[in-house]
Amino acid sequence: MKLTSLVPEARSRLRESSRIELGKGGLWTHRLRGGPLLLSCTAGSVWLTREGEPDDVVLEAGASYGGEGRGLLVVEALEPAQIAVAAGEAQRTVRAAIERARAALARARGSWLVLLSLAALYLIWGSTYLAVSIALETLPPFLLAGVRFVTAGALLYGGLRLRGVPRPTLRQWGAAARVGVLLLVFGNGLVVVAQQWVSSGVAAVVVSTMPLWLALFTTARGARGASAGAPEVSRGEWLGLLVGFAGAALLHLGGDLHAAHAGALLIVLAPVAWALGSLYSRSLPLPEGPMAVAAEMLAAGPVMLGISALTGEHLAAPPSARSLLALGYMTVFGSIVALSAYTFLLRNTRPAIATSYAYVNPIVAIALGILLGGERASATTWAAAAIVGAGVVLVSCAGGPRSGAAWGNAGRRSGGLRTGRRMDAALHERRRP
User: Fold this and answer.
1) Which residue of 85, 341, 378, 410 has the fewest CB atoms within a 10 Å radius of its CB?
2) Is it true that domain 3-85 has CATH number 3.40.30.10?
3) Domain-by-domain residue ranges, the chain?
4) What DSSP assignment string belongs to 144-200?
5) DSSP code, position 372
6) Phi, psi for residue 316 in degrees, rounded to 5
7) How confident is the model over 72-111, as pLDDT tens digits?
8) Nearest of 389, 145, 113, 137 to residue 270 by alpha carbon
9) pTM above the 0.70 mark?
């Protein structure tokens, strides 16, 4: 228990307090909930006792009590009296309760958003392989990919501009064009071309080797001294690389990559192009955040349409409703909705979680191909998917933050310098069809 005189600060606080009239023998109770309390007897006298305190105290007119912590406070009037209780205590208690409730709701909302975002990446990006196969039924590959990226890029660019994001400079457009050609024209384009003869499940397994290629190229670049201070590759990372590439070799040697058309083997080059483009983009002046993705799609889409015209692609018949729906699905969900989920995960979870789709998508793609696409998956395909996934996990875990950054957070820098967020957002189109 602490008695204080009515110092100026106390008088100031009590002017904003609640005044309570008590008749002789009247009681007033208040439960302290951790915050401070200022109570003053402004007339008469009162007897004050607090739960857990061994001694009671009498307050006469002009005396005040300051207390904090927790427990029940009881005031009894020894004669007609008036007490003043600072209103800030009750307000702070209510505000603290509201803040705690808001924090709990935010944590719950964040957990659900993480789960929903992961589900979006696993299902949407895992299903785009089947969507490509369906769209290819009546649409030629480069025309399909070109229309997709021009449309998605225009929608994303328009949305960002409406939100006040500045337009890219001429230099940034040039950088986006170079990266977009590597990532989308060669990376995505080769996958779409090869899926004319390769099942969606096999395509997903081959594409899942991209993190391994990126880790390998980053290692080679560091060994040549191109990356100053680059850490040495651990044994665990080398083991992961060997395991992952062994899975890819199994897919080839097992016969699942053999096809009547040699163009099917182009898919092997797709993850190599994506990895090179990802590594190359670190040193280029790309726009920040999602605007880099929009610029790359807008730059690469017309190139794909040009290739379509030069190679003589044409529509033998009007596209089927099934193919157009698949194209719309890839444009809206694969290129915009999943992008939002991916950028949310990169900002709110560890890179290992955000990039976990790299070894989940093949399983989803194989399963959807069997259930909805009428495809068949041999035991070799399933085994290769498991081995490649294990290799990616090994590289991610063995490399710690560095390897996680390599394929999900590449190029990030600390402090107030330019961050690698452009890589975070841009990789959404680089590892899948």
Assistant:
1) 378
2) no
3) 3-85, 109-429
4) HHHHHHHHHHHHHHHHHHHTTPPPPPHHHHHHHHHHHIIIIIIIIHHHHHHTTTS-H
5) T
6) -70, -25
7) 888 999 999 998 877 454 455 555 556 666 666 666 566 7
8) 145
9) no
